[in-house]
Amino acid sequence: MPVRIFEEHVGQNQIDISEQMLESGNGLIEILGISNALSIKNPIACAHIHLKVHGNNHVYIGEQCVLNGVNIQLIAPGSLRIGARTGFNGHSHIHMHESAKIEIGENCLIAEGTNFSTSHVHKIIDVATGERLNPPGDVIMEDHVWSAGSVSLWGGAHIRRDSIVGRGSFVSKQNFPPNSLIIGAPARVVREGVTWEH
Fold it and tell me: If you count DSSP H runs as helices and E runs as strands, how many of each does the chain have, helices first?
């Protein structure tokens, strides 16, 4: 079954989705609200994709990506960019409950169970000051990063290029150096000066 598109307000969004994806893939793209801009280039594979935007969202997915089992829900205004030749293998989630941006670089490998979220949705408040302790933030994964599965990346996470994020890691509010092996909950660098290959 091809990828289906539902547009709530026809003609009030910019939609540029490759015919190859629509014809050879399967899944559902829901475009709610207005002023959304979607640009999705030719993927290598696309199976069981679900992409849902709610208004004032900007989505760009580059050439030759593998989009298997990815679930994208952009509820608040913001942007999502996925670079060329990045692969999602197995069910992963990208959520934007509060406005921010999510950027995933080129040539990344995203294993099953990886979750990207700009916020924890529910606010944690300091009783004495009224300060919010878990504000939303951008999630940045630079080029050639391998997420080894069941990884959670929250607002403020920044993984630099050529790094590996170990299975089950929890990454939040931290900027890691390039060429790092990052493991744990909370995540920490356990080795520097590494890279990876397919």
Answer: 1, 21
Per-residue pLDDT 10s for the chain (198 aa) are: 699 999 999 999 999 999 989 998 999 999 999 999 999 999 999 999 999 999 999 999 999 999 999 999 999 999 999 999 999 998 999 999 999 999 999 999 999 999 999 998 889 999 999 999 989 999 999 999 999 999 999 999 999 999 999 999 999 988 899 999 999 999 999 999 999 998
Determine whether 130 is exposed, middle or buried from the number of CB atoms within 10 Å of its CB (0-12, 13-18, 19+).
exposed
Query: pTM of the entire structure?
Result: 0.95
Domains and CATH numbers, the chain: 52-192 (2.160.10.10)
Q: How many residues does the chain have?
A: 198
β pairing state of 57-61 and 87-96:
unpaired
Cα dihedral sign, 68-71-74-78: negative
